[in-house]
Write a structure and sequence with these properties.
Blueprint lengths: L2 H13 L22 E8 L9 E5 L8 E5 L1 H14 L4 H12 L7 E2 L13 H11 L3 E5 L12 E2 L2 E8 L7 E5 L5 E6 L4
Length: 195
């Protein structure tokens, strides 16, 4: 397993015991006036933690510590990118990214999806888009590092269910999306359109 991944887990688990209830509902984003938007939420069942190495994305919008890891199967990530490439008419950047990822498969250890440079132009928010798409399709796992299942294993608690919110003037064509714990604590949000 990736040493950085284990160190990160150990650091955040050691100092944190977090069980707070949120005072907001999933989808109540600070960027939107509550009177002008519609929020559509659904409950999403998550996959159990994959046994094989996966891509991961650290998240945790409600605090600065990003204590969640969203685990994404490599084949699901590739399928999302290939779908995106078709929509974009075979974008050379997406095709190059797909080839970069395929060159690393099969993964030998859990791998940070940010390794592939998904954070700059032309991929602004791509890692979040991929993660949100896969969560909404029930094709992702989420681990909360602040909740330890046993003292022998510093792996965190695998969440079984989350709330998925589409926010906007027409939630089917969301302006923003957010994933939250059942308590309302935000895990990941993405503003996809700004007016």
């Amino acid at each position: 397993m990736n040493k950085f991944f284990l160190i990160f887990v150990a650091l955040f688990v050691s100092g944190c015991a977090h069980e707070k209830a949120s005072d907001r509902s999933c989808g109540e984003l600070k960027y939107y006036s509550k009177t002008k938007i519609e929020i559509k939420t659904i409950s999403v069942d998550l996959l159990s933690r994959p046994k094989e190495p996966s891509f991961y994305l650290f998240a945790g919008e409600s605090d600065p510590y990003h204590h969640y890891a969203i685990l994404l199967k490599p084949e699901a990530v590739l399928a999302e990118l290939e779908s995106f490439s078709k929509i974009r008419g075979g974008s050379k950047w997406v095709e190059a990214l797909i080839e970069k990822i395929k060159a690393d498969l099969p993964l030998k250890e859990n791998t940070d999806i940010e390794k592939y440079g998904l954070f700059g132009y032309p991929f602004m928010g791509a890692q979040k888009t991929i993660a949100l798409n896969l969560i909404e399709k029930n094709q992702a796992s989420i681990v909360d590092f602040w909740r330890i299942e046993s003292s022998e294993e510093i792996s965190g608690k695998v969440l079984k269910k989350v709330v998925f919110a589409r926010v906007g003037y027409a939630p089917e064509d969301a302006d923003a999306r957010e994933v939250c714990e059942l308590s309302g604590d935000s895990i990941l949000e993405l503003i996809e359109r700004v007016y």
